[in-house]
Structure formats: structure tokens, C-alpha cells
């Protein structure tokens, strides 16, 4: 039998990829806010479990986005996730 290798296509790490990362981070920020405000759980452990899953997913996206920005990938400041805007604007003001 022949073994077939599937080659995964490399996603280009350009400004469009960074924009989609920013949109996804903003989506997770909204999900976290909704979870904190409206979601009801059986116990605090269930709430913390759900919250930690979202935080972990968001953290990897944020880490990638910050690395791309540090590597010089251009982005529009108006497209930053709301959670990034406060820290970015504060650092630009000083």
C-alpha cells in the first residue's frame, strides 16, 4: 500500500491574517463578557471551567497576533480588538 502524505498549506502571515486574528480575539472577548454577565451554570466550578477554556483559546490567538505585530506585520489600529486598544493607546500616549 502506498502511503499518501497530505501537505498542509501554510497560512500566509500577512496583514489579512492578522486582521482575522484580531476579529477572532474580539469575538472571544465578547463571548467572555456574555458568559460573565448572562450565562448561568450549575456551579462555580462549571463557570470557571467554561471561562478557562475561552481564556486559553483567546490567549493563544493573542500571543500569535502580538508576535505578528512585533514582527512588523502591518495592521490598522482601528481594527484592533477592544481589549488591545486600551493597552495599545495607553502605550502610544506616553
Write the layout of secondary structure elements.
Blueprint: H1 15-37, H2 44-70, H3 82-93
Short description:
The protein has helices spanning 15-37, 44-70, 82-93.
- Helix-strand sequence: HHH
Tally of extended strands? 0
Distance between the termini: 64 Å
Helix fraction by DSSP (H/I, runs of at least 4): 55-70%
- Total DSSP helices: 3
Class by SSE composition:
mainly alpha
- Gyration radius, rounded: 17 Å
Largest sheet: none
Report strand %.
under 5%
Shape: flat
Q: On the 0-100 scale, what is the average pLDDT?
A: 85
| Unreliable stretches covering 5 or more consecutive residues | none
Overview of this protein structure:
- The model has no long low-confidence stretch (mean pLDDT 85).
- Helix content is 66%, strand content 0%.
- The protein is mostly helical and 94 residues long.
Task: Based on the model shown, name its key terms.
single chain, 94 residues, mainly alpha
Amino acid at each position: 500500500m502506498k502511503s499518501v502524505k497530505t501537505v498542509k498549506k501554510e497560512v500566509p502571515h500577512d496583514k489579512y491574517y492578522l486582521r482575522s486574528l484580531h476579529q477572532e480575539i474580539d469575538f472571544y472577548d465578547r463571548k467572555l463578557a456574555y458568559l460573565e454577565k448572562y450565562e448561568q451554570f450549575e456551579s462555580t466550578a462549571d463557570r470557571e471551567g467554561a471561562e478557562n477554556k475561552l481564556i486559553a483559546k483567546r490567549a493563544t490567538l493573542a500571543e500569535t497576533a502580538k508576535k505578528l505585530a512585533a514582527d512588523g506585520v502591518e495592521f490598522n489600529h482601528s481594527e484592533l480588538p477592544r481589549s488591545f486598544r486600551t493597552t495599545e493607546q495607553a502605550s502610544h500616549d506616553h
